Amino acid sequence: MTGAESRPAMRLGFGLMCKAPRPGLGKTRLAAALGAEAAAALARAFLQDSAALLRAAADGLHAPCIAFHAPADAGPELAALLPGWPMQAQPEGDLGARMGAAFEHLFALGAEGAVLTGADAPSLPRALLVLLVSALERGADAALIPARDGGYCALAAARPIPALLDGIPWSTPAVLDATRSAAEAAGLRLAVLAPWHDVDAAEDLDLLRLTLRGLAPPGLSPLPPWPAHATRRVLGEKG
Asked: Which letter does DSSP use for residue 224 in this model?
């Protein structure tokens, strides 16, 4: 052969960490401002768009997708919203424990690299998810897409990574810094990509509208946003 010998593509698995979009379950800050029903309608749209995004990225890489859901009884409800998706209930525990279980499940199915996203960033650029996988293929132990609020929108790993999930102050602005510190302490190579934003509170909706219009402010990735058609309909945005 001439030139560098090509390596087989990494076998991948994709997981969506999601909650049933029921009024009063999750999105409490949105519900406080908009009401429980309106917040649930947005949560449902975010879920559908996040699933479509993850499916598009996974299909482009010939990888399976699994919905890791909460609460445990939400499987049939979510299966109706996400036709064709395999369902797996999240275990009890904090977010780190639940993400760890999702990673373990994907690797047990034969994945050599796994990607987890939530359902809070419906306009996340598809290309950023592809770059997560590229980081693993280049030798990173893990890779993430930071969020503006100090957390992250997606995490990829080349193997189970409990060191990055244990003892993290979840749901605080310190998540990203704590994850970086944990990676350094464990000697893990962590690739940090350009940031995006998620949607937790009513004030985040203004930024969401901007990104859906292709007007992401400085500091966010310049890559094209996911079109997020369901979210656009709920927000009354064109496109």
From this structure: P
